[in-house]
Amino acid sequence: MDALLKAGTLRLSLTFNPAHAQQKIASGDLPASSYSFGFREGMIGNVHFVTIPANANASAAAKVVANFLLSPDAQLRKADPVVWGDPSVLDPQKLPDGQREILQSRMPQDLPPVLAEPHAGWVNALEQEWLRRYGTH
After folding, report:
1. Fewer CB under 10 Å: which end of the chain, C or N?
2. 86 half-sphere exposure, CB direction, 13 A CA radius
3. Cβ pair 113, 24 in contact under 8 A
4. How many Å apart are CA 101 and CA 92, to the nearest integer?
5. What local confidence, expressed as pLDDT, does residue 85 receive?
């Protein structure tokens, strides 16, 4: 969809990442006039998960990697639009001033609140209603 947006075929695209436009501008995939927006009442958002299987051969090493991925340094790098441009899972208010300022500078400002995803028990009903209304996944 980004290529169609850049070509002017689309005037609007969809993403779960509020920093997607910043990242694509930094990589040259979208024009500098691109921006993120959301609905005033809020929008559904989610985060990435790191899973360690119960039968992992190196669970201690996997925990080291998972802890690194959650570290402020790794999260700040991930939030950099030149690197990935993906929101952090960290609460900026719990970071030291310098890290908080860097993290906040890498996220679009004035976006509406992120709403929690519906409980997993709703998935089947939502999919069925989607199919009824739109006929496809």
Report:
1. C
2. 13
3. no
4. 8
5. 85
Considering just the CA atoms, what is the radius of gyration of the chain in Å? Answer: 18
The predicted-structure confidence for 100-110, as pLDDT tens digits, reads as follows 999 999 887 77
22 SS3 class: helix
* Boundaries of domain holding 26: 2-134
Other Cβ atoms within 10 Å of 131 Cβ, number: 11
Please give the single-letter amino acid code of residue 137.
Answer: H
What is residue 137's predicted lDDT score, i.e. its pLDDT? Answer: 61
The domain tally of the chain equals: 1
Any residues with CB less than 8 A from the CB of 114 and at least 6 apart, and which? 42, 43, 44, 45
What torsion do the CA atoms of 128, 132, 134, 137 make, to the nearest 10 degrees? 30
Residue 14 CA to residue 44 CA, distance in Å, equals 12
Regions of the chain short of the pLDDT cut 50: none
Q: Which two tokens stand for residue 37?
A: 């927006």
